[in-house]
Design a protein that fits this description.
By secondary structure, the chain is an alpha+beta fold. The protein is built from five helices and eight strands. A hairpin with a 2-residue loop joins strand 2 and strand 3. The structure holds protoporphyrin IX containing FE.
Length: 161
């Protein structure tokens, strides 16, 4: 029988290493919050540019996370980009799905844990398939405050135990 009752322990969640990399790679390609906005309160030099005090800037996470200088084959889904030896090669701000600095996401750890539990619980109990799609690249997105899926359809089939 499918088991939705048996909640995973904290220790089990911590051991979902591959799932964690899959979630991180998903947030790279599809950051839930695609753009963050900041007010510049003093001139910032960013050679050869200057962001002048008093301006508003948009930090497009969707583009930052696909910078080909940092991410080889940026459109390729590859969870192993988040193996610790690979992470160590990159600048800490090259990947910021939870933003960075004083106003970053306070729900970072909770959010990751929540997604891990949700995905693990669903996959333990259901086989999930897309309907009418060959690749995640067929998904159409709506760029709002949060990134929304426009056309995805999924089929859930209960696993037999
Ligand atoms: C995968 C899940 C999540 C993602 C990707 C995410 C992403 C973000 C990002 C990018 C920001 C910065 C927005 C900005 O600078 O304009 C943010 C801020 C924030 N997040 Fe999250 N978040 C997630 C889950 C959560 C959860 C679960 C909570 C609460 C339990 C939460 C609470 C907040 C709060 C309160 C802020 C505002 C912080 C501030 O302005 O000081 N988030 N989040």
């Amino acid at each position: 029988m499918p088991n939705m009752e048996n909640s995973p322990t904290q220790e089990e969640i911590n051991r979902l290493y591959y799932l964690e990399r899959v979630i991180k790679e998903t947030l790279r390609l599809v950051p839930t919050i695609p753009f963050i906005l900041r007010y510049v309160d003093e001139d910032i030099k960013c050679d050869p540019y200057i962001f002048p005090a008093g301006s508003n800037i948009v930090v497009p996470l969707v583009l930052l996370h696909k910078n080909p200088d940092v991410w080889p084959e940026p459109e390729k889904f590859d969870p192993d980009r988040f193996l610790s030896n690979e992470v160590a090669k990159r600048h800490r701000c090259s990947y910021i799905p939870f933003s960075f600095g004083a106003r970053n996401c306070i729900g970072l750890r909770f959010g990751m844990m929540e997604v891990k539990i949700m995905v693990a619980t669903i996959l333990r109990n259901f086989k999930v398939r897309t309907v009418g799609m060959k690749s995640w690249k067929d998904i159409q997105w709506e760029y709002m405050v949060m990134l929304k899926v426009k056309n995805s359809r999924l089929r859930f089939e209960k696993r037999k135990f």
